[in-house]
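User: Hi! I'm a student and our assignment asks us to look at how structure tokens line up with a sequence. Could you show me two examples?

Assistant: Happy to help. In each example below, the sequence comes first and the structure tokens follow. Example one:
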Amino acid sequence: MQRKITIGMGLILTFLFMTSRAQDLHFSQYFNAPLLVNPANTGFNPDFDYRVGGNYRNQWASVGNPYKTMSVWGDTKLFTNRFENGWLGVGASLLKDVAGSGSLTSTSGYATIAWHQMLGYNSLLSGGFGLGFVSKKIDITKLSFDNQWNGSFFDVNIPSNEPFAYSQTTYLDLQMGLNYAYFASENVYFNAGLSVMHLNNPKETFFDPSVSDNRLNRRYTAFVNSSIKIQDVWIINPNVYVSKMGNAWETVLGMNANRDLTGDGSSQLILGLYYRNKDAVIPMVGYQINDMKITVNYDATVSGLSSLNGSRGAYELSIVKSGIFPSSAGKSVRCPTVRF
């Protein structure tokens, strides 16, 4: 029985590792990790000069060692006073992911740049490019394999005969994206974007090249969102996110809403509900005070994994701070946006 349980847990963790690897690092609150979704989002924050953010995700703790994903990022505008109808955005992000019993650790850093060009008075087209450095490592001594089962337990002294050649792999990663925004009125805003990650199909493997020459598939991501103000009290934000990498698809759709609590938008309650296709229902709650926004969500599993984790999936925390530089107050390029 112990062998069956151990092998079963190993299969589960292997499946989770493969799923995570196929989809890359991701957050349910993708809209609060803009540089991870599309490099064209860099500097796309019309009301502000800069923003910084942090994200933390903990998942699958109830079926083994939890997967922890963390990121910090920031971006800013440049040349807002030099060009009348456009500006440059520059940004950077750091991500770290620790997964599974083998302590699979991924650490990556990206630098992104984007140009934002006004098209008339109510449209904006953005194009962005990103360059990243990724390092992944695994502690092979913490792993056990089926041929190490001696009839009673997994004996690490028995050779695994697995063709591991490295405990660490590194590579450069290229990405690019486009973003379009349409400001219909003071009460309605529309935005859509498309990005491609792993443009250079980087090699990612811990095995000898003669055994595996695994290349990452390109990851294609598209999103559509909107902001609609209702009776000067609510701003609702319906949005859809779709990502494809190889044969793996991820689709998230839903809506969040901001409720003005003070009459001037300085204090807002945030409520949201999302659904990841064939995976999880994701309620979200948050609070915004002035230019600081804090949101928390919980992923309640609805897939076949729910019978193993009791529908307990993941929780996630996001913090975003935006601001205006004192020297550029009142001078930066502005787009009409939906706000209280």
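Example two works the same way, sequence first and then tokens:
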Amino acid sequence: MFAQTTIQHPVAIAQVMVNFAARHGVDVETCLLGTGIAEAQLHDPDALIAREQEMRLIENLILALPQLPALGFELGLQYTVATFGVFGFVMRISRNLREAVESALRYLPLSTAYCVLEAFADQDEFGVSADPSAIPQHLRQFLLERDTATAMNLLRELGLSGVRVQRLEYQGRAPDHAARIHSLCGIAPQYGSARNAIVIHRQDAETVLPMYDAHLVRLLEHQCRAQLERRQVAGVVGQVRQLLLGPLGLTASIEDVAHALAMAPRSLRRRLEEDGSSFRNVVEAERKQLAARLLEGTEMKIDEVALQLGYGDTASFTRAFRRWFDQTPGDYRRRGSQ
């Protein structure tokens, strides 16, 4: 069953993305377009944003920087222990890397992670696996690479550069930017693996860290639990959006979505109205955003884009696209390639 709540993220996580985009010539307005995040919030250390707002920012970043290979992986390397506040400090003062990872997994919603992360170990090795299957398809590769790069960066930072990652494993075929990932992290990813994972020597994972403080760990873990409770908020619009972009797809009816959320369609309509939206508006917004991304970033034919967005025919898609952008999909693509 789909979760009835979402977790708000600290705006510092979004600030890293905005700063990264700025270094590549993308302005703040472009990053925040459609997110509902005000620029002033980026400078408020106590500000929190919803997961769907962060996801929209990620989409904007992908649209703005299509020329950067391994964009997600490079972004992931920008996150440090300090980015995550108390959550990061708990990891820093843990007994060893293994316990740091275990603490991180307990409070994972306080991090950037969208993948489902799990620790594993055998006699010789310790690692973290990442399952991106719950992430919307069009963001899956980006967020898998961002999450694994972030995890790799944190392991190295916590180990004071004394930890060497043994393997970086990915399922599936090697993307065109595999060499770029190698150059960014110094490790050639192994593709066609049974899992997505970062692997280190078990001895490195169990070496005592220099800042270990058992009393402070207990104190800060209490603060992490309190933060989780504070950030847990109802977000029916975000839940609907994630279902449409994920397991159900944009062809889903309100009845399909209501069933997935374990509520009656009438109740879902009412909840959306209370949040100032409607099922039609949510679907329309996602189709518009995804249409622009597919036309700009892929070579899919117009009729294939229409089908991907849940339209029964190309004419219906073209009419909707004209309403959104005041031009045809073909004109939009041609102008974008000039």
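Here is something you could point out in your write-up. Residues 236-336 form a domain with the Arc Repressor Mutant, subunit A fold (CATH 1.10.10.60).
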